[in-house]
User: Which sequence fits this backbone?
């Protein structure tokens, strides 16, 4: 029993998920002490007459959906290209504008929503391929390569929108995807993230994508010598990120049935990178954990919601967020980790001595 | 060392030459005082229309007024970067425009350029925003009074004679002119105790953030009967949160919804009775400026230096489709 316990703790200590789990645990404990009812979830009747779940927990997971979707794609890009795509927010507004403009130009129906999403997917994948080409073929640093779209993206979205922030006249059907399907009490964005995670897990299980991405991220030359084409893998991960971007943009449009190219998903690229980092993934590529990144996204949102609940003043909210994030990142840093594991093994030796002493 | 000297000499000379060339062009325009014949040369410096729905309407307004048919030769420069705007202003001055119309990206740093304009005989008219410069450096200013927008809205709110005023206040980006102006009036009510501040938080103009804030207020179990959002997007986000929690809003309902900017879609919400109030921030300054220029051209003096755009507040119970068509921004 004891042995198994120490084995699990040791596995956990070495696991990538230690930091996100710890951060999660601290946030939960902190909130429970502050307000025991913080995580209570209730079933309420919304204004459309459906019974839906409501509460901080639902808010956090729901509002983190776009971030989680982007973090999934960002993890793969980080693993394979040893860098991050900072254009995801801007690209998501482009995808969103394609989505909303297709819907505005046609009669609203469920198949049309699917078609609009596919259209935005194609556009986002093209932009992903553009970034991917710069990174894979021209060997430009990912952050520099994606800086182009980061700078121009929101203006491209504005141009697609024809110089306005578009608003859908009939929001009934898009609301299903942005809020709730009638009869289902869980917000649809949460379900979409789950579906996306499951599909991703299946892809990673049944194809070599994950292994190849890691191999390219760890050592490109070694990967090439083993018959993996780094260019193709890098291009592929950026295109997959494009799909995530299209999903995030479309979900965001569905929430309110409108798109403001200036404020939609603003600064989300930074949060997405942060989510990957909090998830315990090395930002210099290689080994990765998809679940860790998604947990990172939920932690960032939970932090935001906690700050709202604490009624931190408007001027100071960013500073508070920064302090907590510095703490999380520091705890996850290699230096602190090394000290922690040293301390841990010392403790273990001491207990071992005590145990033998008992015998 | 010697090479460097020669090089810098060449660069310096070429600079002087180009400047002289530009100066020549400007010089011609300077010598003939603006007269009735020939189009009036106007240089417009504005923020790019992509900045916001407000700006798009503002740019369109200027495009429709300052036309050739109206007797103007207008050129426009758009930038959200103050330095680029300053360069453009210098260029307009050397090009010898008669009038420089300016909506500054940032309020500081304009003294030098405005001085140059004055020396070159270029008349400057500020619009939309003031700059931190001596009053003598510009002819007139046609601006919005954001504080007045807040006053108008709060006066309207007080007129609703609710039993209590429990307000959720969602602010814009902290420190922006619109945020400071629209927050001021409400802060005064909180301070005097006439209204209760349930929560005051910045939504950074974003619908998503406003939704998250209102969700958090609802989840904390606090009750409120007014949402005062400093723009339309954030009011929309707040309404989305209320809808999900089954709290009614609008005319005769549980929560009063207030927004700003008068986007067309927002005014439609008012007409449908889902919102209660929308405050205008008028982007229509071109006609007033056109009148001013005509006056100045006729040799008259302007009655007042600073003109505050007339700005309305729309009430859901009195708004008409005609109001939406006239004052609504966007499509």
Assistant:
């Amino acid at each position: 029993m004891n042995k198994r316990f120490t084995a699990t703790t040791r596995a956990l200590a070495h696991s990538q998920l230690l930091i996100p789990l710890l951060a999660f645990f601290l946030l939960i404990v902190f909130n429970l002490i502050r307000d025991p009812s913080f995580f209570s979830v209730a079933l309420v009747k919304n204004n459309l007459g459906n019974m839906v779940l409501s509460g901080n927990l639902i808010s956090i997971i729901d509002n983190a959906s776009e971030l989680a979707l982007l973090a999934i794609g960002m993890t793969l890009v980080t693993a394979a290209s040893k860098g991050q795509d900072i254009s995801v927010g801007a690209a998501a507004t482009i995808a969103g504008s394609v989505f909303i403009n297709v819907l505005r130009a046609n009669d609203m129906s469920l198949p049309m929503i699917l078609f609009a999403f596919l259209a935005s997917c194609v556009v986002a994948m093209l932009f992903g391929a553009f970034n991917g080409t710069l990174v894979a073929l021209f060997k430009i640093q990912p952050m520099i390569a994606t800086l182009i779209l980061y700078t121009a993206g929101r203006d491209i979205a504005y141009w697609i929108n024809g110089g306005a922030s578009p608003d859908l006249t009939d929001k009934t059907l898009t609301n299903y995807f942005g809020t709730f399907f009638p009869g289902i009490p869980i917000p649809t964005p949460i379900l979409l993230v789950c579906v996306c995670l499951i599909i991703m897990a299946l892809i990673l299980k049944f194809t070599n994508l994950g292994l190849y991405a890691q191999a390219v991220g760890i050592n490109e030359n070694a990967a090439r010598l083993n018959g993996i084409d780094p260019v193709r893998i890098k291009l592929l991960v950026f295109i997959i990120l494009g799909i995530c971007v299209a999903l995030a943009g479309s979900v965001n449009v569905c929430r309110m049935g409108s798109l403001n190219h200036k404020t939609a998903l603003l600064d989300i690229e930074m949060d997405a990178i942060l989510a990957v980092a909090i998830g315990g993934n090395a930002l210099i590529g290689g080994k990765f954990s998809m679940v860790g990144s998604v947990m990172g996204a939920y932690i960032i949102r939970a932090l935001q919601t906690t700050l709202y609940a604490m009624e931190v003043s408007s001027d100071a909210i960013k500073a508070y967020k920064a302090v907590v994030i510095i703490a999380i990142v520091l705890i996850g840093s290699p230096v602190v980790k090394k000290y922690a594991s040293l301390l841990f093994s010392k403790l273990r030796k001491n207990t071992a001595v005590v145990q033998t002493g008992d015998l | 060392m010697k090479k460097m000297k020669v090089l810098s000499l060449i660069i310096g000379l070429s600079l002087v030459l180009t400047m002289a060339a530009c100066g020549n062009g400007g010089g011609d325009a300077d010598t003939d005082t603006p007269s009735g014949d020939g189009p009036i040369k106007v240089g417009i410096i504005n923020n790019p229309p992509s900045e916001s729905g407000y700006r798009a309407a503002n740019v369109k307004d200027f495009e429709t007024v300052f036309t050739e048919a109206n007797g103007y030769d207008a050129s426009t420069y758009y930038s959200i970067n103050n330095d680029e705007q300053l360069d453009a202003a210098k260029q307009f001055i050397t090009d010898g425009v008669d009038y420089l119309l300016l909506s500054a990206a940032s309020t500081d740093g304009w003294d030098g350029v405005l001085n140059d304009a004055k020396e070159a005989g270029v008349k400057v008219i500020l619009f939309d925003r003031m700059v931190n410069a001596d009053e003598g450096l510009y002819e007139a200013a046609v601006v919005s009074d954001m504080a007045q927008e807040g006053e108008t809205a709060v006066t309207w709110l007080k007129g609703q004679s609710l039993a209590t005023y429990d307000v959720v206040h969602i602010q814009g980006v902290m420190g922006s002119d619109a945020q400071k102006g629209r927050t001021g009036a409400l802060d005064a009510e909180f301070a005097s105790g006439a209204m209760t501040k349930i929560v005051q938080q910045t939504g950074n103009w974003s619908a998503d953030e406003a939704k998250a804030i209102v969700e958090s207020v609802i989840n904390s179990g606090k009750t409120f009967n007014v949402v005062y959002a400093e723009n339309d997007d954030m009011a929309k986000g707040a309404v989305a949160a209320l809808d999900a929690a089954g709290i009614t809003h609008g005319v005769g309902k549980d929560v009063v919804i207030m927004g700003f900017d008068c986007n067309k879609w927002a005014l439609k919400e008012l007409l449908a009775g889902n919102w209660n109030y929308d405050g205008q921030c008028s982007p229509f300054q071109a006609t007033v400026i056109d009148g001013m220029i005509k006056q100045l051209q006729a040799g008259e003096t302007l009655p007042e230096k600073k003109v505050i755009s007339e700005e309305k507040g729309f009430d859901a119970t009195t708004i008409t489709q005609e109001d939406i068509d006239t004052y609504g921004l966007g499509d």
User: Anything to note?
Assistant: Chain A has two domains: 16-311, 324-359. The longest helix of chain A spans residues 110-136. The CA atoms of residues 79 and 285 of chain A lie 4 Å apart.
